[in-house]
Amino acid sequence: MDKREMYDHFDQMENDLLALQQNLHDVHDCLETLRKRNMSLEIENQNLRERLDELTKTASDGGDEKTRLSKPRLNLEKLYEEGFHVCNYLYGKRRENDEECAFCLEVIYGTKK
Ligand SMILES: [Zn+2]
Prior knowledge:
Layout: H1 3-56, H2 71-81, H3 102-109
Helix pairs in contact: 1-2, 2-3
The structure holds zinc ion.
Zinc ion binds at residues 85, 87, 89-90, 101, 103-104.
């Protein structure tokens, strides 16, 4: 392989790398979208389960222990602790450096229903 060939080869590798980088970027975006979607579905699923529980044991016995967080709130708390926003403003976004978010805390620990 002469010098010129080597340079051509190097250029080609560089182009390949750039293309690969673009691909990685696309896949990353795709994963990000899926992750958000998954989070939404997980929460929605929890909410529906909770609602189903409420409906199935309507009159059976009076609800006590309201000191604990409800399941959907526990789920939100889990997501929050994993480093994601659960508030309406930044829902599904990562919390940079685990910053506290008053809106998220309001959603999780705010007025109980
Ligand atoms: Zn937030």
